[in-house]
Amino acid sequence: MKKIVCASLFLFALTLTLNAQKSQKSFFDFKVTDINGKSFHMSSLKGKKVMIVNVASKCGYTPQYEELQKLYDTYKDKNFVIVAFPANNFANQEPGTNAEIKEFCTANYGVTFPMMQKISVKGEDQAPIYKWLTQKTENGVLDQDVMWNFQKYLIDENGKLTAVYLSKTSPLDEKIINWIEQ
Q1: Are 132 and 27 in contact (CB under 8 A)?
Q2: CB-based contact 72:41 (threshold 8 Å)
Q3: What is the pLDDT of residue 4?
Q4: Domains along the sequence of the chain with CATH
Q5: Is pLDDT above 90 for 146?
Q6: C-alpha distances in angstroms, 138 versus 84, 105, 156?
Q7: 105 is catalytic
Q8: Whole-number average pLDDT of the chain
Q9: 164 forms bridges with which residues in the sheet?
């Protein structure tokens, strides 16, 4: 009888674990809207390494757009992509419309990597993809709030969050380059 109870408890715990894993959303399950108003499916990025970065046009880190574009130009044909999400969550540093943001990025930095529509990356109105990026209960890896503009989240080819770098880390930092090249 003791063996049956233990086996039943084990099977129950295993079922709960498997159901939790099934209900956990994958990075590739997300659909967002690009800066032009079109649907963008993260599933289109399967097999690529992805850097997600929240951006702003009036921030001290805004010159990182140049480094992001250089990184993208170097590795875009090597299964790497940058996906930028403009956000106005920090000191009103991204007040523009999607059209204004697109014009700013194109005219000043020649941005060609995918830009999404402006979203909220924290707070009550946090976009679902940023809930996934910032909460271990969602991503299964770690908790990491967005601290400021130009925070970088690295997603591997299988859709797993692998690292987070704060704003001060250059997109061209050796750790990021090594991660892309490995």
Answers
A1: yes
A2: no
A3: 63
A4: 27-181 (3.40.30.10)
A5: yes
A6: 20, 31, 16
A7: no
A8: 91
A9: 153
Task: Find the catalytic residue in 51, 55, 59, 87.
Answer: 59
Lookup result for tokens 């399967």: 46
The one-letter amino acid code at 9 reads L
Contact 43, 75 (CB under 8 A): no
SS (H, E, C) the chain: CHHHHHHHHHHHHHHHHHHHHHHCCCHHHCEEEECCCCEEEHHHHCCCEEEEEEECCCCCCCCHHHHHHHHHHHHCCCCEEEEEEEECCCCCCCCCCHHHHHHHHHHHHCCCCCEECCECCCCCCCCHHHHHHHCHHHHCCCCCCCCCCCCEEEECCCCCEEEEECCCCCCCCHHHHHHHHC
What percentage of the chain carries pLDDT values higher than 70? 87
Sequence letter at residue 162: T
Q: pLDDT grade, residue 25 (50/70/90)? A: confident
pLDDT digits 0-9 by tens, 44-83: 999 999 999 999 999 999 999 999 999 999 999 999 999 9
79-114 burial, b at 16+ Cβ within 10 Å, e below that, comes to ebbbbbbbbbbbeebbebebeebbebbeeebebebb
